[in-house]
Amino acid sequence: MVSRLVDVTPVVPADQLVAQMVPPSMFDDVSFDSYIPDPAEPSQEAAVTACRRFAESVVARRTPKKGLFGRRPKSAEGAGIYLDGGFGVGKTHLLTSIYHTCPEPKAFGTFVELTHVVGALGFNRAVEELSGHSVLCIDEFELDDPGDTMLVSRLLAELTTAGVSVAATSNTLPEQLGEGRFAAKDFMREIRKMSGIFESIRVDGPDYRHRNLPPAPDPMSDEALESDAEAEPGATLDDFDALCGHLATLHPSKYNRLVDGVTRVCLRDVVPLPDQAIALRLVVLADRLYDAGIPVRNSGQKLDAIFTEEMLAGGYRKKYLRATSRLLALSRFETVGG
């Protein structure tokens, strides 16, 4: 019998939360040298240079020259770098390269994973656990809630004061986060504080996942989808609506554990999503599937029809486009990591 994601409820012990803050395995071997800048996009080469310089500064902060009487001077405040650009231009590649270059201890996680860590540990313990790190790398830095904005603003202020450097990626510049979203004024107040932490680096270019690739594949029939799932060891098969309902019962930071060990995700009867809350949860799932390189197959409607035109016209447009880009890339995968 084929397994279902709706039957999985991951549990992550609190004492393992910081330890598991590492890059996805698909980025284990990336480096600055393996990032190939597009010659038509000079900002990419400039971004590599800026990220190398930032990583080198973190290393230098962690190996200060000894002062008088052999004492090491106190670490200076941490630095910050912020990679802004469209989806599919290699920002996560560069962020992971920063992580690999910097000395231990260090941490890497998505924005939603970071907020979960703080919520699970409590603010003070989270600061204590992270304050000795050389760098905190935050991927997908997009703020959907004023409370999370203030929480992360406080956290980064505490950590940078303690000497932790911060590297982040997003599709929106720090001073523009929250535009077109709920409670924009609340966002702006806190975002102004955070934007001063970062040096913003623009990374331009087309989405590499769509270069010279065909459009979304046609959906499979339900029968063919079931046969596909049954033929692939480790595959899962879920009704799309039921899976969306299950995601609402889990904190998004657990979605990576939800798909742990899965080799293919088969979604039956895909339809356009009815509201933003469900859509944003699916964005996170798409990111975790992409991080793990898990192929996606579906029946129902095409994967590029999941997010409605109304959604794409709103404040979360870039998130939905990124998720669509990643789902389409996964629909072309033949095997995990393909």
What does it look like?
The protein has 2 domains: 31-206, P-loop containing nucleotide triphosphate hydrolases (Rossmann fold), CATH 3.40.50; 209-331, no CATH class. Helix content is 41%, strand content 13%. The chain contains 12 helices and 8 strands. It has helices spanning 42-62, 91-101, 111-121, 123-130, 146-161, 184-195, 222-231, 240-247, 255-258, 276-292, 309-312, 317-331, and strands at 80-85, 107-110, 135-139, 165-170, 199-203, 235-239, 264-270, 296-300. The strands form 2 sheets. It has a 5-stranded parallel beta sheet, sandwiched between helices. Helix 10 crosses helix 12 (317-331). Residues 178-184 have low confidence and may be disordered.
Please give the structural blueprint.
Elements: H1 42-62, E1 80-85, H2 91-101, E2 107-110, H3 111-121, H4 123-130, E3 135-139, H5 146-161, E4 165-170, H6 184-195, E5 199-203, H7 222-231, E6 235-239, H8 240-247, H9 255-258, E7 264-270, H10 276-292, E8 296-300, H11 309-312, H12 317-331
Parallel strand pairs: 1-4, 1-5, 2-3, 3-4, 6-7, 7-8
Helix pairs in contact: 1-2, 3-4, 4-5, 5-6, 10-12
Organism: Dietzia natronolimnaea
Region (Disordered): 208-231
Protein name: Cell division protein ZapE
Sum up the structure in keywords.
ATP hydrolysis activity; three-stranded parallel sheet; 2 domains; cell cycle; Rossmann fold; five-stranded parallel sheet; alpha/beta; 8 strands
